[in-house]
Amino acid sequence: MHRILTLLILSFIVLVSQSEACTTAIISGKFTKNGRPLIFKHRDTGTLQNRIMYFEDGKYNYMGVINSNDKLGDEVWMGTNSAGFCIMNSASYNLKTNDSTKEKDKEGVLMKLALKECKTIEDFEIFLKDQPKPLGVEANFGVIDAFGGAAYYETDNWDFKKIDVNDPKIAPFGYVIRTNYSFTGARDNGYGYIRYLTAEELLYNAEATKSIDHKFLLKDISRSLKHSLLKNDWAKDFPKESNDPFYIITQDYIPRNSSASTFICEGVKEGEPVELTTMWTILGYQFCSVAIPTWLSACPDLPKLTIADKTGNSPICSAALELKKQVYPIVRGNGNSYMNLTALYNKDGTGIYQKLRKVEDEIFFQTEMKLSNWRKKGISKTEILEYYNWLDQFINAEYKNNFGITLME
Fold first, then answer.
1. What is the mean pLDDT of the chain?
2. CATH number, domain containing residue 149
């Protein structure tokens, strides 16, 4: 009996550490490359089909990433609204150590409500205080607004603690990271300590060279194969031959089998139109997908690749999950913990991510040209819609040419 109980506990720990284990960060605009704040979430979840959805049911219109099987969008896991308020979370596992309340797992519901109602981080604080208790949450909520506000709120059923990213005593280098424990929670409980240190090392070095921007977060953190404890980086030490499988265990890396999507909101500088707030999203397994930008100014329209098709899923997410089968080909036993690194990186340059990196770099280049023009002349819904069409066609063609996968007809 004792052995069975031990196995059940260990199984639960592995499940939690793999399925609900996000890596997040907020960077003050005072420390980013272009002076605009950034909010970042690398999402791990048991629900691997993710898509973007637009909503008009609140004080502010908003869009965000939802689980594809959530047809009505009852929960939003990261998003932005028309006031420039952006929110995400990481689950925490050390805030409710003495709380037996049964109400739980309401984080997605709470973030949806916040996107409906909040304009500033101060609004969010009032919102948290006014919500009926218990909240049914245990999380690190991260928010930024269009007025320079940037903070985490380590929140349990009854209360919260604010972590101000603009406070130099708290964030001397302008950023705060949270994985799956809270700094105000029980010491040594929770998960993600190794991932935290990995992200810390990467951000610390990037801040020292003034190179923190959305591209750095998407390419160098969300797709990092660096391990802060083992002191290796498989993105720099990959296999020589493309035909020989080379397996690594990815449990404590930032990207792993449970990684489902990545979200970044780049806010605006003081005086810039809030409509320029840019939401970058990678839908699906990050190494097998590409980042796509969206703006609320063009809603309800969004890139077709990011929203539900006739299957109810996002085409880009479905394609990424199909390619992911080459990365995690072992389906029996504990095989889903083993990544075939050769499928992503090899000396021949034929890895999935080696091909998609070029596609994404072109998206970054084209988007920066668009944003540079809109910052000078004003944002144009017509031009956004034209760009969405180009993105859909370009990405579809690249997946077809590189992998024989058609995303849309």
1. 94
2. 3.60.60.10
